[in-house]
Design a protein that fits this description.
Blueprint lengths: L11 H15 L3 H8 L3 H9 L6 H11 L3 H5 L27 H17 L6 H8 L3 H7 L3 H24 L5 H11 L5 H17 L9 H21 L8 H20 L5 H16 L4 H4 L2
């Protein structure tokens, strides 16, 4: 009997080799990474040797645990998701994984969780240090202060979103289905996505009071917009989506998702209604009507 895994047609041998490199560079034990993925160590050993393919969710968890991107693990050159500025050098597949040092990564991930759950203003450096099991001095060694650390937490949110998109979208050939999946992946549904949205929402509030050009956030948002726009253009080229200005369609769609997402995050709208609103908008404004349906 073989292990049951989620569909993944990419080259398992290359991915296994990269996973071994990432594990070695992370300085984490195989047992620790297996536990963080939620599989036993024997299954991880099989995946690292190429005898078993990583499932999609396992690949995501492995990338998060070791600090690399899913794109690097897969050697993926697809254009399903625009690459964040920090990871654009990964297009050179000869590079070794670009990793934060383990202490820095631990601090960022701990801060991300605390900022998301309790808010930037409430969380202190001492709280992050205590939760991460490091000293205040260790945090100040890597970061110039809480604002710098929040920016790193924002970057971590970008990585999580990018990893999900690369892992889940590359196997979806239809631009229509890919756009639906992309919007679902980027919605505040599930604990991790809600935490990401908490970071986004706090960023919007901060930039509304500060100089937005002092932050990397506009570049991060542009990356997201490019991903949506390229998907819309792919659908237009295949005759699946309505013709029109893809930039304007992208602005309207992302603005809709932002607004509805805030309603979900703040409890004004439930998830089922959110999904109906997004689906209805896609049918009205993006997806080209089926002639048979129009005649009904």
């Amino acid at each position: 009997m073989t292990d049951r895994i989620e569909p993944n047609s990419r080259d398992g041998g290359d991915t296994a080799q990269r996973a071994k490199e990432a594990l070695r560079a992370s300085e984490l034990s195989q047992r620790h990474v297996a536990a963080s993925i939620g599989i036993d160590e024997t299954k991880l050993s099989k995946s690292l040797s190429g005898r078993r393919r990583f499932g999609t969710s396992e690949l995501l968890s492995f990338a998060t645990a070791t600090g690399v991107t899913v794109k690097w693990l897969l050697g993926d050159e697809s254009q399903v998701s625009a690459t964040p500025l920090r990871f654009q050098a990964e297009s050179d597949q000869t590079l070794t994984p670009s990793l934060d040092s383990s202490p820095r990564r631990l601090i960022v991930e701990t801060a991300w969780d605390l900022f998301a759950r309790h808010g930037y203003e409430t969380v202190r450096i001492a709280d992050i240090a205590e939760a991460a099991g490091v000293s205040n001095a260790s945090i100040h060694y890597y970061f110039n202060g809480k604002s710098d650390l929040f920016d790193a937490a924002l970057g971590y949110s970008v990585k999580l979103a990018f990893d999900r998109q690369i892992a889940w979208l590359g196997e979806i050939p239809s631009p229509h289905r890919r756009l639906e999946r992309l919007l679902e992946l980027q919605s505040p549904i599930g604990r991790t996505a809600r935490s990401e949205w908490s970071i986004w929402l706090q960023t919007w509030a901060r930039l509304g009071l500060e100089d937005p050009y002092s932050s990397d956030y506009p570049a991060h948002y542009e990356r997201w917009s490019q991903t949506v726009r390229s998907t819309i253009e792919a659908g237009q080229s295949e005759g699946l989506f309505r013709p029109g200005d893809s930039a304007a369609m992208t602005d309207e769609l992302t603005a809709l998702l932002d607004g509805l997402g805030v309603k979900v995050l703040t409890g004004i709208m439930d998830v089922a209604t959110f999904r109906r609103r997004v689906s209805s908008y896609l049918k009205r404004a993006i997806v080209k009507p089926n002639p048979d349906e129009e005649s009904l």
